[in-house]
Structure formats: structure tokens, C-alpha cells
Amino acid sequence: MKKLMTATVAAALVAGCTPNDPTFSSFFSEAGSQTDQGDFGNASMNNMMVQTGQQDYTINLARRFASEVNSTVNFAFNSTVLDASARATLMRQADWIRQFPEVRFRVYGHTDLVGSNAYNRNLGLRRAQAVVAFLSSQGISRSRLEAVASFGETRPVVVTESRERRNRRTVTEVSGFVDNDPILLNGKYAQVIFREYVASAVPPSSLAGTQIETGAGG
Fold it and tell me: What are the OmpA-like domain coordinates in residue numbering (predicted)?
């Protein structure tokens, strides 16, 4: 009975794979017969490149931030109000940012193409400032946040002269390191993660107030 069960299980496992399945081919091929596609050892190689300065810290963290959280929030027409969706996104951004107290961030403000370029440039900046204020209310030091850049209406996601919500946005990006010293993270990643894991048990402060702007821009 035991041999029959073993044979049945083995047959079921093999039946679940096809000759084109990587698991099937690796199981029935000679050891070393398959070419490594570059995945094996990538983590170790990346760590080595960062430690030796061959991999740029800022670029690495910028890519990770953009892949792990939504870096964009959108706004109503001619407004700097952070709605419920925007606040939820920014709270997730703040959770991520708190993991890396040595890293600085910049918030870029954008508008749609309705209104003058001068007005929209100022409106975009105010949107960026609203985001910085909210992130600060979540425990992020203002010294690590910049809202000095606004592209106004010059970089639309959707090129249209009409009102377009997707163009009315802010984008949060990694901009560098505190005191311009990337070595702060050299060999201390585990310490940072553990510290922020413990600190995450503390509830964030209440939501920051928002305001509505009036004018002729988008």
C-alpha cells in the first residue's frame, strides 16, 4: 500500500508538469546543463556594488520607492485639497519614507493646461507644498522634504487643452541623502529597518488640514 501511494504521488507531481515547464526540465536534466539567466547571485552582486560605490545609492532607492509605493497624487481642478485617496497614498509614502531617515525627498507639482503658465507654475508649487505639509504631519522631518520645484503645465501626462485630472498631480521622488553622505547607510541597513520597525508601532499624528485655492488655473 505504501509503495502504491508513493507511486501515485510521484505520478501526480510529474503529471502536473510539462516538458516545457522549468521545474520539469530542471528535474530531468543533468546538473549544470541549463544556463544561468543571471538571477543567481544578483542580491550579493548588488550589495557588493553598493558597498564599493559602483552602484548609485540614490538611483537604487529612487527605483525602489517608485516600484513599492504610488509616488503620485491627483487634485481637483484649481485646487490644492488632498482628498481621501490622496491622503491614503501619502500615508503609504510616509510609511516608506520613515524606513530611511537618512534619505531626502523632493515633491514636484504639476497642473493641467487650463490657465496661464505663470499661474499654473505657482499652483503646482502650492500643491507640492500641501503634500510636504501632509508628510510632515505624519512624522517626516521638514528638513528632509523639498517642495521647491514645480513644472506647472509643462509636463502633462495627457496632452490636452481641456481639464485633465491625471495632469493635476504631485510626484514624490528620492532626491539624495541628508548631509549628502550616502555612507550613512553603508552597512547599516539592518539597523535602520529594525529601528523603523519598532517605531512603526507608534500611531501617526492626525491628518493635516487642507485648503482650497481659487483662481483660473488647472
Answer: 62-178
Distances (CA, A) of 136 to 75, 143, 170, 174, 181: 19, 9, 16, 16, 22
Mean pLDDT over 171-189 rounds to: 67
The tens digit of pLDDT for each residue in 138-159 reads 999 998 999 877 888 888 888 8
DSSP state for residue 171 in the 8-state scheme: E
Is residue 27 in a domain?
A: no
Domain count, the chain: 1
Q: Is the pTM of this model over 0.70?
A: no
Residue 155 belongs to a domain with what CATH number?
3.30.1330.60
Containing structural domain, residue 199: 57-218
Give me the torsion for CA of 143, 144, 149, 154, rounded to 10°: -160
Side chain identity, residue 92: R
**Residue 34 maps to a domain:** no
User: Residues 217, 115: contact at Cβ < 8 Å?
Assistant: yes
Which residues are CB-neighbours of 140 under 8 A, at least 6 positions away? 94, 97, 98
- In percent, the amount of the chain with pLDDT more than 70 equals 56
Q: Is 41 part of a structural domain of the chain? A: no
The answer as to whether 171 is a domain residue is: yes
